[in-house]
Amino acid sequence: MSSYSKKSCIREILIKRDGEKCAYCNSLEKDLTIDHIIPTSKKGSRYGRYNLVLACQLCNCKKGNTKIQSFLNKNNIGARNKTILKQIERIRRAKNEGREVKEVIIEEIRKNKSMGLQRCAL
Predict the structure, then answer these.
(1) Alpha-carbon distance 86 to 5, whole Å?
(2) Which of 24, 40, 49, 94 suits a disulfide with 59, CB 3.0-4.6 Å?
């Protein structure tokens, strides 16, 4: 599979999961880029969909390869976007427990079902 095809496939997965908006500022910009929550330069997964989000070009450039928490704090994003914070917490929890992010999400879904909740945002 070519690099372009892989990016297109990943983009489609992210659009289905998060919608066509920037994960950081919620803008509905047409040309969204794929951003790594934890930069690959800081040992973040390159193609793991749980480490990827869609971001507008402005947010992606602002973030660069800075740590996600400092970017969110500096730009006052955390208060506006609970989805990205939830995803960061999943990544952090999985890393601390030596598990895959997918396992943490499956655990959340099972827990929510046992509590009678219908869905778990991926």
Answers:
(1) 29
(2) 24
The residues near 44 (Cβ < 8 Å, ≥ 6 apart) are: 36, 37, 38, 51
Neighbours of 107 (CB within 10 A): 15
Question: Burial level of 81, CB count in 10 A (0-12/13-18/19+)?
Answer: middle
Separation of alpha carbons 52 and 55, rounded Å: 9
pTM, rounded to two decimals: 0.67
Task: Measure the CA–CA gap between 39 and 66, rounded to whole angstroms.
Answer: 7
Binning the chain into helix, strand and coil, the percentages to the nearest 5 are 55, 5, 40
Q: What is the mean pLDDT of residues 40-61?
A: 86
| Beta bridge mates, 55 | 33
Q: Where are the beta strands (DSSP E) in 1-122?
A: 33-36, 52-55
Could you tell me the residue ranges of all domains in the chain? 3-114
Q: What mean pLDDT value characterizes the chain?
A: 79
